[in-house]
Design goal:
Elements lengths: L2 H14 L10 E5 L1 E3 L2 E8 L6 H16 L9 E7 L3 E5 L7 H10 L9 H12 L14 E8 L8 H9 L2 E8 L4 H7 L4 H4 E4 L9 H7 L1 E3 L2 H4 L7 E5 L2 E5 L4 E3 L6 E3 L8 E8 L6 H17 L7 E8 L3 E5 L7 H10 L9 H12 L12 E7 L8 H9 L3 E7 L4 H7 L8 E4 L5 H7 L20 H29 L1
């Protein structure tokens, strides 16, 4: 579990429980994402190490990014370089710049299946792909020049000098590495800051997860609330390229997503909440301590009592360990003390065993569960389970437990979907990149409420500022940790 994971857990728990706010979560009402005019060139590795089905996944990634762009002769132009031992221009910036034409051209591209001359491909981008003869707009100050390099191996030529020339020529370089790629090579290619321009995924099956990052990277946010371009009755909440309607305290959002109804008042529903924390060896000790600190900040936001929220905590790795059951602690102070004492297991990833424990033990009466109270389980993992999860995941949902699955980094999305309750899209969350966490936090609309009275629902809105503050604080801490790790790696090298 990487440091990004604790933010997802933090956001999720905050949104599950609020101390009595009335009003439904704001619903998406409108979208608008205008992309700043850009000359964008994809530089795609199709060497022999890239299998045909993996190359198809690269093409899907490229297509998804294109679909989000405003393409056209006077907007964003797209080019694509296909390389192995040689370089082939598949799309020039002067090519027909309609989405349909670009997507059709991408579908036709075939892998070259020879060597890996990444430096040669970057040189081709400098001398040809971004040139005026090929449709580049080098003389126009309002146009960005961006190259996205996707590679899965160590290049057979040098990239450091040629990448420096490309950056000096005003080309912003994003470097995406897959599998056994040489991370040093990615850093030599990418523009500064490196943490925004270098990305890694463990396989081509995961590359599509980066689509949203690049869609956001080219999006010029329009504040539709500020311009008045919305139809919200009370409150308009801006999000990147979109807006949501919300209601003032004492009102709930109607099903139309824009009008509000006065609440009669609600005391809120009781909740039995147990979450399973992946304590496997991929969790670094410093990140595990951050998770503990932020769990305690979440506890500070809950109404803990016999009649309201009860919290249980289970940690798992190669085995399962109950840290404390539901109802053991009656107040926040005792829960926080128990969390601080939790030690890091640091072994394998037996998610199936943890799910079975949740079903058989965590929500049993002997472990503090209350009859008739909603049961919520949150499974949080950063990798593939080393055991079978299907039977336990199905039994949890068949038992009426509401299951949320939260994955980060190398988590397997098929496993997350199998764990999550229906509708799956509202019950599982994944992030490959820490920089997307704040956006995910804003989009989460998870709530526990009494169905017969929408005014008893817990509102996201009161906690939005607190979530963002916690995310920003965590980001600063993780950046400091990352810098220390990078310094140590440089010393070792």
């Amino acid at each position: 579990m990487s440091g990004t994971g604790c933010v997802l857990l933090l956001s999720l728990l905050l949104l599950l429980q609020s101390p009595g706010a009335c009003g439904a979560p704001p619903q998406p009402r409108g979208t608008l994402c205008r992309t700043k005019p850009t000359d964008l060139v994809f530089i795609i590795d199709s060497s022999r190490s890239v299998r045909p089905h993996e190359f198809e996944k690269i093409k899907v990634f490229v297509s998804r990014v294109i679909e989000a762009l405003d393409v056209g002769p006077n907007a964003t132009r797209v080019g694509l370089i296909n390389y192995a031992s040689a370089v082939r221009s598949e799309l020039g910036l002067q090519s027909p710049q309609s989405k349909a034409a670009l997507l059709q051209a991408v579908r036709r591209i075939q892998p070259l299946s020879t060597g890996t001359m990444t430096g040669l491909a970057i040189q081709f981008a400098i001398s040809r792909a971004f040139s005026a003869a090929e449709g580049g707009r080098a003389g126009a100050p309002n146009f960005r020049k961006v190259a996205i390099v996707v590679t899965d191996g160590r290049p057979q030529d040098g990239v450091q000098d040629v990448s420096a020339r490309a950056r000096a020529a005003g080309i912003e370089i994003f470097a995406i590495g897959v599998g056994r790629v040489d991370m040093g090579t990615l850093r030599q290619m990418a523009s500064e800051p490196l943490d925004e321009h270098v990305d890694y995924v463990e396989s081509y099956s995961a590359i599509e997860k980066l689509t949203h990052k690049f869609q956001e990277a080219f999006c010029v946010v329009s504040d539709l609330c500020a311009t008045g371009d919305h139809d919200c009755e009370q409150l308009c909440v801006s999000t990147p390229g979109a807006y949501r309607c919300a209601c003032r305290d004492g009102f709930s959002l109607n099903s139309d997503g824009k009008t509000c109804t006065a609440c009669n008042g609600g005391l809120g529903s009781a909740l039995d909440l147990v979450f399973l924390i992946d304590g496997s060896k991929s969790v670094r000790p410093e990140n595990f301590e951050l998770v503990k600190k932020f769990i305690n900040q979440i506890v500070d936001s809950l109404e803990v009592s016999d009649k309201q929220a009860q919290v249980g905590l289970v940690q798992y790795s190669s085995s399962v360990r109950q840290e404390f059951p539901l109802g053991q602690f009656k107040n926040k102070k005792d829960i926080k003390a128990a969390v601080k004492k939790m030690s890091y297991m640091e072994k394998g990833t037996m998610t199936g065993q943890a799910l079975k424990y949740l079903v058989d033990s965590s929500f049993s009466a002997i472990n503090g569960a209350r009859p008739g109270v909603p049961k919520v389980g949150i499974v949080f993992t950063d990798g593939r389970s080393q055991d079978y999860i299907s039977d336990a995941a199905k039994k949890a949902k068949d038992s009426g437990f509401r299951m949320f699955a939260v994955g980060v980094g190398n988590a397997v999305e098929d496993e997350l979907r199998e764990i999550a309750s229906e509708p799956v899209a509202e019950h599982y969350f994944y992030t490959a990149d820490f920089r997307t966490i704040s956006k995910i936090g804003k989009k989460l609309q998870i709530k526990i409420c009494a169905e017969e009275d929408p005014c008893e629902c817990k509102s996201i809105m009161k906690f939005q500022t607190k979530v963002e503050d916690l995310i920003n604080s965590l980001q600063q801490k993780l950046e400091a940790v990352a810098k220390r790790i990078e310094a140590l790696e440089n010393k070792i090298i």
